Amino acid sequence: MCERLLPRHSASTGGWLSLLLPAALVTSYLHAQPECGATDAVHQLLIAAAIGMCLRTFTFLLTSHLKAATSIKFILNHLLPGVVSSLCVNRSWPFALPIGLLITTIYHFVYVRVFRGLPRTFTFGEAAIMVQGILLFVLNAICRLWTLPSTDFNQLNAIMTSALLCLLLVCVALHLVRFLRKPLPFYMLMVLLLLAVTCAPVTRPLPLIALLEFLFKDPLRLLIILSDLLLVGLTCGAVSWQLRSSTRASTRVRKVFHLLILLVFVPGLIYQCALLYLATGVALAIFVVMELLRLLQMPPFAATLTQAFDSFKDEKDAGGLALTPFCLLIGCALPLWLTPCPCLRAGKDSPLLLLLSGILTVGVGDTAASVLGSKYGRNKWSNSNRSLEGTVAFVLSILLTVGLLQLGGVLVMTQAKWFATIFATLNTALVEAFTDQVDNLVLPLIFYIIVGLA
């Protein structure tokens, strides 16, 4: 089975990546607070599901190269992950076992379909993270969308969850029904999606009214929205400038997007966390729609989007999907999505350092390593094309940023937090230096796990 799937060229299997989301969920569970409400049962179910999917990945990779009887492969592949997952569910055996088996079976089905639909796009580990994330999102949505939210943040969460769930259903419909891939049905489907997102009865008042009330409640919120729109305009200008050039974007040019996302996330996390949380969902939805326009060659946008993809893609964008920009957004937003009630606490109990995991590693560290390493790097690590100078820049840039945020009163750092930050930074830097996986996705999770567990 494994031999018939086509992973990304020039990269290792990356099976260890399937451990990252389960570990991150355990970390986020340790930081859950009573003010988040009754989230324990759902969080435990998500951890159990993630453990089962992780084990399913390992057994799949193992049995693909194992010469054993069919019955043994069946037990390892189909029964063991489901049983282990069910043991982690805090429910009775007759309820937990079918749930565990169902989750791991659906996971493997989607996992294989992703490889066959998008060949040469992912490594086995990268695909594991993506499919785990999608199924965990669906499971979380199913568990939480039955109750009407009571707070502003819960309302935003419900709106974002229902919108992304509707968008996922649209993607599934486009995959299954060829007729919908024609321009007129496609754009009609987009209109229906917009209506469903704004008018679905998931909040009181309806999402459109709730969003308008939220956006206009705070003048600072409007100011940050205007600044973000200005940054979006600058991004579009940078893309337009690059498209007028006949050359592909260099590494330094691509790191401009890291700087722009840094300028969006840091003020958002400090001053308007709930707004940023909503904005990450909106940005992800826009990315998905733009990618659908490009992949399905929808006029009049497909040609420009294809040209932009060809100009900015790097060696990890080997398949048909624009993997790098998705992973940049997801990597920066994952700490915000994983942490329970990320916007409700302040002071010593604030999870801000955790929430900054993506920005510190991708926006600051990886950018410094790429820019300074490509310019001043002379000493290469063995078995790697990364330089020692770039790794030093990665570590120093993150620690300097954390120090400046502490001096500015933004971060409350204890001695234990500093030790955890240094340890996490050093380990993340070494992974950045040697990994051939998509670092935009991997580095934030590693930093998040180490800082959270410490």
Q: How is this structure best summarized?
A:
72% of the residues lie in helices and 0% in strands.
SSE blueprint and pairings:
Elements: H1 20-30, H2 40-64, H3 70-87, H4 93-117, H5 124-144, H6 152-176, H7 183-199, H8 207-215, H9 219-243, H10 251-271, H11 273-295, H12 302-312, H13 323-338, H14 352-355, H15 357-376, H16 388-407, H17 415-434, H18 439-453
Helix pairs in contact: 1-2, 1-18, 2-3, 2-4, 2-5, 3-4, 4-5, 5-6, 6-7, 6-8, 6-11, 9-10, 10-11, 10-15, 11-12, 11-13, 13-15, 13-18, 15-16, 15-18, 16-17, 17-18
What does this molecule look like?
This protein has 454 residues and is mostly helical. Helices cover 72% and strands 0% of the residues. The chain starts with 19 loop residues before the first helix and ends with a helix.
- Could you say which overall geometry the principal axes of the C-alpha atoms support? globular
Q: End-to-end span in angstroms? A: 39 Å
- Largest sheet entry: none
Number of helices: 18
List the uncertain runs. Answer: none
Give the tally of β-strands.
0
Give the proportion of residues in helices: over 70%
Mean pLDDT: 87
Which structural class should the secondary elements be placed in?
Answer: mainly alpha
How big is the Rg? 22 Å
What portion of residues belong to β-strands? under 5%
Oligomer category: single chain
Order of helices and strands: HHHHHHHHHHHHHHHHHH
